[in-house]
Amino acid sequence: MRDELERMMDGIAAAATPAPEDYTDPATGLLFCGKCHTAKQCRVMLFEMERLMPCLCQCEKERREAAEAARREQERLDRIRRLKATALQDRALLAYTFAGDDGQNPAMKYARRYVEHFAAMKERGQGLLLWGGVGTGKTFAAACIAHALTEQAVPVLMTNFSKILNSLSGMFSEDRNRYLASFHHFSLLIIDDLGIERNSEYALEQVYNVVDSRYLSRLPFIITTNLPLAELQAPKDLAHARIYDRVLERCTPICFNGPNYRKGNAAANKDEAARLLND
Fold first, then answer.
1. What angle do CA 189, 102, 155 make, to 5 degrees?
2. Secondary structure of the chain: what % helix, strand, coil (to 5)?
């Protein structure tokens, strides 16, 4: 064992090749770096015998630390890219970020605050219910939240019940359970457009299963809906009450009641198209 360790130490010492600018310090007898003028050798005791062994000078330490920091940053960026690819199932939502907020919708401040306080919200299992008329910015706000959190490497999924129901159709019970459990991998689940899904008994049961699974896991979710809050608070039947009660317990209602941005965008697009055609 001693011979093997000594051979290993000798190999390490022999493998250290001085750079042309390196020099031996006359005061210590150690090899010094010609760039940063710190030691590239140190003395170690092994089996009661002193040996000269290579060590890292200051500039080599900094180079390795910088390389390691760059590697970690690249891993972080790669993880964020993967999270973004998963987070937004609708590619059209990729352009929806807080940077694109024109500041006209006062409800957007709550979306920003939710991101700022997400750690506390997650701990409480607290989400948001973004409700209001068509085209008032609910989906935009939800996508902004998804983007901002994925930038922080938080796993998010934004989808809608129609896509979930399509995925569940044809699955056996065990596969459905695995599919629902897969949502637990995401720190935040965003479900867009509650209320546009089919109102069949099967559809409502699956919607309930998704909401209840998230509810029981105490993980936060965000729901957007065109339904009025009064309808959510006074559902028309038990099937809807089972869903809405859980949503309202875990999701703070935020009203989006501004102008229809889609109509405004459509009008602006038509005006621009007309200008281009008439030039």
1. 20
2. 55, 15, 25
Using CA atoms, how far apart are residues 85 and 77, in angstroms rounded to an integer?
12
Task: Answer yes or no: are the C-beta atoms of 255 and 220 closer than 8 Å.
Answer: no
Average pLDDT, the chain: 84
Please report where in the chains the tokens 């209001």 appear, as a residue. 132
Residue 198 confidence class, pLDDT cut points 50, 70, 90: low
pLDDT reading at 277 higher than 50: no
* Cβ atoms of 190 and 219 closer than 8 Å: no
Band (pLDDT 50/70/90 cuts) for residue 180 is: confident
**What are the structural domains of the chain?**
1-87 (no CATH), 90-265 (3.40.50.300)
Give, in order, the Cα–Cα distances in Å from 9 to each of 5, 39, 52, 144, 157: 6, 18, 10, 56, 52
CB 171 within 8 A of CB 160: no
pTM of the predicted structure, to 2 decimals:
0.71
Q: What angle do CA 63, 22, 39 make, to 5 degrees?
A: 65
**Cβ contact 196:161 at 8 Å:** yes
Residue type, 91: R
How far is 250 from 248, CA to CA, in rounded Å? 6
Read off the pLDDT band of 53 (50, 70, 90).
confident
* Encoded amino acid at 8, one letter: M
CB 246 within 8 A of CB 128: no
Taking each helix axis as running N to C, give the angle between helix 108-116 and helix 138-151, from 0 to 180 degrees, rounded to the nearest 10. 20
Identify the pLDDT of residue 14: 55
Nearest to 24 by CA among 34, 15, 14: 34
Query: In angstroms, rounded to a whole number, what is the distance separating the alpha carbons of residues 95 and 83?
Result: 15
